[in-house]
Amino acid sequence: MATRHDPSDQGDLGDTPTRAENVPASSETDAKTTAEPTATRGTADRTTADGTTTDRTTGAGTTAAGTTAATAAPAAARTGDTPEATRREKIQGTRGTVQTREQRLEEEATEHRRESAYQLARARTSNRTSTDFGLLLLRVLPVIMFLHGLRKASNFSGFRDTVAGNSFGALAPDVFAIMVVAGQLILPILIAIGLLTRLSALLMAVMMAFVWVLTQLPNGLIDARTGGIVGEAAIMFVIVSLPLIFTGPGRFSLDHALTAKRAEARAQRRADKAVA
């Protein structure tokens, strides 16, 4: 038997609301609240279970503002102090720069004075090239005496007899003969090469002065044959030796080569003393 469908039943079925339509308004609100982004939770957090509203966001904001203000206060104070501190630092830096510049200028001036004093001290111990060359020629002249000593050494017995014939030499003829021969052989060589020049020149001057006084002067001061001074050769050696005692040998000598560093040290000491 066919079942008859009631149009009213169809109408009733058509008018039956869907599950979504039958959901209550409160449920729909809860669903929307659940579906909202997490960003809105701050607002939801303000509603408590008993319906009381608490402004947590405002409280947090107030706390943050207070912290910011508390942090900003020292910063502001520091910011306010910065120009003064910076100004003091700049002044101190400027003073340090000025002091450093003054110290550098003072050191440069001191070094300049020391260098000038050193050059002056070195100049006092050095000569011009022409002067050193003249001293070299003066030192070579006593080599002539070497020839006299060589002749006496080759005939030492005859020279000893000559010394013994003198009233002063007769006291110790052998000693005086050896001294004169050794002096005339050694001293001219030392003077020529510039070794122990001042001492050698002094010994030569003393030796030849004694020879002139003891052997030549007793015969008179003036030579009747020539009209000159008796014993001019001995006097010449004395005259050649005396300047070397005061001037030294010059740069063209062994003495200068051996004492160059000592002369520089002496000049440096004089420079330091002049600056101090």
Automatic annotation (TrEMBL):
Q: Spell out the Basic and acidic residues composition-biased ranges.
A: 101-113
Positions of the UniProt region annotated as Disordered:
1-113
Locations listed in the record: Cell membrane
Membrane topology reported for the UniProt record: Multi-pass membrane protein
In terms of InterPro entries, this protein maps to:
DoxX, DoxX-like_oxidoreductase
What does the UniProt keyword field contain? Answer: Cell membrane, Membrane, Transmembrane, Transmembrane helix
Q: Give residue spans, biased composition: Low complexity.
A: 49-83
One matching Pfam family is DoxX
| Family (UniProt) | Belongs to the DoxX family.
Protein name, entry field: DoxX family protein
| Provenance organism | Ammonicoccus fulvus
